[in-house]
Amino acid sequence: MGTTEREAAPEPKYWHLRTVLVRTIDGEFSTGQVIPNERELAARFGVARATLRQALDQLELEGRLVRRRGIGTLVAAPRTAVPVSPADEGWPGTARDAAWRIVDCTTAPPSARLAEALGVPADENVHTVRRVRVTAGQVVGTEALHVPDSTVPHLPGFAAETDRGRSVLRQLQRLELSGQSRAVELGVAEAEEARLLERPPGSPVLVVTTPYATSDGRTAALAVSTYRADTCRLTFGETGLVEVDEVRTAS
C-alpha cells in the first residue's frame, strides 16, 4: 500500500558531524583561531578520519573554515557585505564603479544565447570587458560585461585590451541608461572564473545577471557578475528590489 507521506532520507554521518562542529566552533573558537588537527577532532567526536574530512570540507566550502598551508585550519572571518544596488555601484564606468578592475577586453561575434539576450544579430561583434572586484585587498567577484558594437560604435583601434576596455566603459557612461533589472542565482565557478577568484573550479558562487537598457528600451549591455559564495553576501540597499520566481516541482 502506498503512503501520502514522503519518508525522509537518512542524514549522512558527515552532515550530522558538520552540525556538531558548527556548534563547537561557534561556542569555543573565535575568528582566525586554529582549530585542533584531524586526529584530535576524530578522537574527540569518535568518528573516522574520512567522515571528519568530509565535514571539514563542507565547512570550508561554506566559508566557515579556511585552510592555511603550514598553519592549519582556521575559523574564517564573517562574509564580507558586497553592495550591488545601483545607488552603491552606479552604471559601469561611473565614479562609483571604481571597485572593479579591468582584466582584459575581447571582441567577437556572440553565441546564439548571448545574441538573443542582447537583441543583436548573430554577426554583430560584441565587446566583452572582463573585470574583477576587489574588496579589502581580496578579489571577491569577477564580471563579464557584454557590450554590442552598436552601443559603442566609435571605439578607437587600441592595441592593448585594457585600453579598449576603458574606452568601452567611457562610452557606456555617456549613455542615458534606465530600466535596470537583476537576477540572482546560485552557480559554480568555471575554470577561468575560478582562477580569477582564486578558488577551485566548481566552487559555489552567486551569479548576478544585470541587463542595462537605453531610454528607448534597447539593451545596451549585459553584465554577468560572479561572487564568491564562501566569503560574500550581497546587499541590495533600500532601493534594490528582489523578485522571487516561483519554482514548481513535479508532484
SSE inventory with pairings:
Layout: H1 13-28, H2 38-45, H3 49-61, E1 65-68, E2 72-75, E3 80-83, H4 86-89, E4 100-108, H5 112-118, E5 126-135, E6 138-148, H6 161-174, E7 177-178, E8 183-188, H7 191-197, E9 204-214, E10 219-228, E11 232-235
Helix pairs in contact: 1-3
Structure description:
The chain is an alpha+beta fold and 251 residues long. The protein folds into two domains: 13-75, Winged helix-like DNA-binding domain superfamily/Winged helix DNA-binding domain (Arc Repressor Mutant, subunit A, Orthogonal Bundle); 80-235, 3-Layer(aba) Sandwich (Chorismate lyase), CATH 3.40.1410. It has helices at 13-28, 38-45, 49-61, 86-89, 112-118, 161-174, 191-197; strands spanning 65-68, 72-75, 80-83, 100-108, 126-135, 138-148, 177-178, 183-188, 204-214, 219-228, 232-235. β5 and β6 form a beta hairpin. α1 packs across α3 (49-61). The relative contact order is 0.14.
CATH topology of the largest domain: Chorismate lyase
The SS-based structural class is: alpha+beta
Largest sheet features: 7 strands, antiparallel
Name the overall outline.
elongated
User: CATH H-level name of the largest domain... which superfamily?
Assistant: Chorismate lyase-like
Head-to-tail CA distance between termini: 18 Å
Please state the second-level CATH architecture of the largest domain: 3-Layer(aba) Sandwich
Low-confidence stretches: 239-251
Rg computed from alpha carbons, rounded to a whole number of angstroms: 22 Å
Encode the helix/strand succession as letters: HHHEEEHEHEEHEEHEEE
Count the strands?
11
Query: What is the percent of helical residues?
Result: 25-40%
Q: What percent strand?
A: 25-35%
Q: What is the count of helical runs? A: 7
Number of domains: 2
CATH class of the largest domain: Alpha Beta
